[in-house]
Amino acid sequence: MAFKIASSPHVSTNLHTNTVMKRVALCLIPGLAVQSYYFGFGTLIQLVLAVSIAYCAEAAVMKLRHKNIKATLADNSALVTAALLAVAIPPLAPWWLIVIGTLFAIVIVKQLYGGLGNNVFNPAMAAYVLLLISFPVQMTSWVAPQTLALHQADVLSSLQSIFELNAPYLAEHFRLGIDGTTMATPLDTLKTDLSMGLTTTESMSKPIFSGMAAEGWFWVNMAYLAGGVIMLKLKVIRWHISGAIIASLFVCASFGFLISPDTFVSPIMHLFSGGTMLAAFFIATDPVTAATSPRGRLIFGAMIGVLIYVIRTFGGYPDAVAFAVLLANMCAPFIDYYIRPRSYGHRTGN
Dihedral, CA atoms, 249, 292, 57, 88, nearest 10 degrees? Predict the structure, then answer.
């Protein structure tokens, strides 16, 4: 019999790594489907590119390290990393963007530290931050939601835009809204408008917003929330990190909104725009880079929620998910050190 050792937290004794990763990938499907519906086929094309590069890069590194290539690829961790990066970047971003990001995530962030279980930072989010800092224009060029788009991208035009096979204006062509103006993401629109002296109410009167949340983004976040609930039911993740992120972000946003509703965004907008639900259930819950004890996971999640709110509200980036997760990853060892579960039989005093 083989003696198997797995890193904590031990969610289930009969769930192997490849099964956990496969279930995470399957639970991403609802969010991926809704995101593709609102933002076109570009997301699916980016996914195929990212997964292909991730598997090739991981196989090459394993060959250089003289490790078992088949066993490494079979754990499906490269699949999840590639999928998370693919859904995080703009659908019509140029092909070389996803290639650089995926190579950095797999080769540098994951394998350079020894492979799965040894990486300090979440690979997908580290790659996202690298791309955002290095190529800010390409990383902020999101297309308009299909329900508000002046021109809708089909499969062929998406391929032409991503691989830059035709006119270079194609990606910009699909960013135009029904009124002919170039549309930014909802969080970017809000931040820009508030810096120009507009109130939250005035900004949210634009077509990109629908009711209390953002057009398209609300349902994308709802879909990732549904996938996260399925993961909770399957015991792939535990509720502590996800619940703490949502609760802390809701409390911070509610407090600011109550103080000044004209200059602070509502909690509904914070929860159901950008990558909030994707981060809460699929990114921050990575057991390798998160805190391990129940109390530690609560602190870890609350830290991410607070950081998301602070960076979104006072920082220079509209969506702060990646930065918040990486900063919390840095603090995870510190949290684990001071929030350790007591050993059985521990006595507090004489």
Answer: -10
What phi, psi does 149 have (nearest 5°)? -80, 140
Q: Rounded CA gap, 247 and 309, in Å? A: 12
At 176, phi and psi to the nearest 5?
-75, 135
Length of the chain: 350
322: closest CA among 333, 302, 307?
A: 307
CA–CA dist 51, 286 (Å, integer): 19
- Contacts by 197-202 with C-beta closer than 8 Å and gap 24+? 199/262, 199/263, 200/261, 200/262, 200/263, 200/264, 200/265, 200/266, 201/261, 201/262
Q: What is the largest CA-CA distance in the chain?
A: 79
Render pLDDT for 231-264 as a digit per residue (tens, 0 to 9).
999 999 999 999 999 999 999 999 999 998 888 8
- For every residue of 263-304, DSSP letters joined together read TS--HHHHHTSTTHHHIIIIITT-TTTS--SHHHHHHHHHHH
Q: How far apart are CA 267 and CA 252, in angstroms?
A: 8
Give the lowest-confidence range in 99-108, 120-129, 204-213, 341-350. 341-350
> H/E element holding 115?
none
* Contact predicate 113/125, CB 8 Å: no
What are the DSSP calls for 96-113, one per residue? HHHHHHHHIIIIIIIGGG
- Report the alpha-carbon distance of residue 123 to residue 112 in Å, rounded: 11
Q: How far is CA 32 from the centre of its chain?
A: 12
pTM: predicted TM-score of the whole model, two decimal places: 0.87
Tokens of 153: 């991208």
Nearest in space to 289 (alpha carbons), one of 84, 148, 89, 95: 84
Sign of CA dihedral 177, 279, 4, 23: negative
Residues 129 and 324 sit within 8 Å (Cβ to Cβ): no
CB 265 within 8 A of CB 198: no
Name the region of 198 (left: φ>0; alpha: ψ -120 to 50; beta: rest).
beta
Phi, psi of 166 (to 5 degrees): -130, -150
